[in-house]
Amino acid sequence: MNATGVEVRRFFKPVISYGYIWDGVFDNRGRYWRTTTHGGDDPGYPPPPGLSLWSERRYYKSYEMSSGATDSVYVGEASYQSYAYTTPAGWGFLPLPFEAGEVIEVNPSGGFWRAHTASYRIVRTGEGGDTLVVIEAGMPLQRVTDEDRSAYVGRIVEDRPELRREADEVAALMPDIKPVLEGLLVDDEGRLWVERVTPKDEPAFYDRYSETGEYVGSVRLAFEPAGPIRVQHGNIYTWVVDELAVEYVVKASVSLRAKPSG
């Protein structure tokens, strides 16, 4: 679609993968990129009760639209964990709060932006893995408190009192430090948007950087999106849900903060 919503191109997705939301991306050479993983040590279904840990090899596959050539770039091991429970009525998963992990975004001119959500350190690498740019900011650490652990247990047992033992186990597994980054995205002009973790009652907050790592402003949303945002033509696109559960597509203009907010 162009800026006025007119369709300009249609194609069949060449890199097949599973997902509820299409998150493929094109680079400046017209290559289509999509992440995928390979591994055989996942716990399977139904999983064993308790904590399960496993890892998979993570790749980005590319598809050259003009020639049909395909390739892949290995970006490292991805680690996962889950906590399963069983009851006479069946089995399910308990959420694992404050998990940190690596996030990766394709850089349109080549390579990737990468960060681990536990700290404000973002790295731009080439497709061969060499480090090209590093962005770091001193962010105050937010520790996981005893109150956080108790509140988690309280939320679980309020609806499922029979899961108190399991909830206590998950609370004990929580990390000591909360993540500071929520995610990364790159807009249509190649700028990196770094989403910080914000309190639940505050809107999303993004720091913006040029491809070479210079800070170019911050943006705080004036609404609560119901899913990921996309940034094109100087506007933010996403959707929201009202109090009657009606979904609306939102187009919002970008207004920058003059200085970074620590």
Which descriptors would you attach to this protein?
single chain; 262 residues; mainly beta; five-stranded antiparallel sheet; four-stranded antiparallel sheet
What's the shape? Answer: globular
Number of helices: 2
Please estimate the helix content: under 10%
Mean pLDDT: 89
Side by side, the strands of the main sheet go: 1-2-3-4-5
What is the N-to-C order of secondary-structure elements (H for helix, E for strand)?
EEEEEEEEEHHEEEEEEE
| Beta-strand proportion | 35-45%
**Cα-atom Rg, whole angstroms?**
20 Å
Number of strands: 16
Cα distance spanning the termini: 36 Å
**Class from helix and strand fractions:** mainly beta
Largest sheet: 5 strands, antiparallel
Low-pLDDT sequence parts:
none
Secondary structure topology:
Layout (H helix, E strand, L loop, with lengths): L24 E2 L4 E8 L11 E15 L5 E18 L2 E5 L7 E5 L5 E5 L4 E5 L5 E6 L9 H14 L4 H10 L7 E6 L5 E5 L8 E5 L5 E6 L9 E3 L2 E7 L5 E7 L9
Antiparallel strand pairs: 1-2, 2-3, 3-4, 4-5, 6-7, 7-8, 8-9, 10-11, 11-12, 12-13, 14-15, 15-16
